[in-house]
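Input record (one chain):
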Amino acid sequence: MRNRRVVTVPISLYKGDAPHKNYDISIPDLIHSELSVYEVGERISSGGNAVVHVCYERATGDEFAVKFQLNFSKKSISRFDKEKKLYQISSHDHLIQYVDDGEVVSQITQHRRGKRSTKEESIRFIVMDLASMNLSEELKGKLHPRYEVYAPQLRGLARGLGKLHEFALHRDIKPHNILVVGERWVLSDFGLCSFHNDTSELSRQDEVIGPRFWMSPEANNRNIGVDDEITKASDVFQLAAVFWVVVNGKHPTGVVTKNDWVGPDKLFDPIYYALHNDPYKRPKDGFEFSEEIEHAILP
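The corresponding structure, as predicted from the sequence alone:
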């Protein structure tokens, strides 16, 4: 029998059990899809619902990333399946690329009151492009990137968001969810995406949906009980906030003005107006935002 790697996860993610307990999930070193076989390598990252590892396609040796779903609630499984579907249908150079998917049988070992119990559970996985780092890591400790480096990336990311907006809202745009794949910056982590007209993804008025420190004004308003609508323009705000950091090296907290801007004058207006408090005064979606970026940077 092949070795299995063990991931320890709070038991609150497993069918609503006590949050102070733990359970272990053992993931096989070898996973099979309908198309290929992959060897699972070192862990890249982990969060509340999933863990990401490097994997190697056995036939070619090519490196990819594989994301395992570790939350078995119906809502989380549904979101993971929607995330997979969105990867499959929204192809763009500046969106993380879907490669493969499948399920693997895993052993779940639960620890409670000094006793252990083990059962098997089917774990979903998605194979996708492997990134070298996320944008937060890329920018940390560095001076401002050169204009010729970031300008085409801003344009591409806005276009990528426009492509995603054909199908869904992202709702979770932040530097950690923008990955560096080769020479490209790509939007990733579609776990909080909401397909258009999907009533199952309607959130409570006071439910926090979005990345802390990067949420749009309307997303923050919902957190205090205001029934504002989350729209494509909300995604535009989040992406513009990231763009502001890329260009200026500082977060656009509070009311920003031209005095806070250190980048080229031609890029100020499209990013500044995308950060407007009123969503109706921002670009309505990623495509409109990309057009304003292109108009500013192209001769």
